[in-house]
Design goal:
By secondary structure, the protein is an alpha/beta fold. 32% of the residues lie in helices and 18% in strands. It starts with a helix and ends with a helix.
Amino acid sequence: MKDNLLFSLVLVCLMMACEKPRQTSTPLLTKSGSIESIRQVKLVDLDGKPINWDKYEDEVVFINFWATWCGPCIKEMPSIEKVKETFSNDDIIFLLATEESESKINTFREKYDFDLLYVRQQTLLNELDIVGLPTTIIFDKKGEIAFRETNMRIWNSDESIKILREVIQRP
């Protein structure tokens, strides 16, 4: 009985962390939490090489924090892939970051054929003030937070495209 109750409690907590889709009418274009610069985010590629943020100087960086077990994370990936195609000629890089192992990511990639750049995060979620998945943080060309949202979003919607255009057009 106690095991069932504990399992139910954990399940409810996981479901709350992976929220339902929500489109806000006002984009969140402000800094939030203790993270202020992209340099505070430590990521490695799937070969274990650190992501060098100098390489992306003068580019917008879109980082989506996700997990293989998070349904809403997976559900928004097709829209991330489509918006990536929409902005293929712009100075923006799309990264999908997870704490999970390289083998779990590769198993996921075999199951789902998304044309996205997967990376592993070295900075803990709580250090980034991330309390739920999916969370997306968009850094402007100066490496500062321009947008942050914890929730699933349809990234190829008109509203989301407008947000990305606003960030790309920032000096």
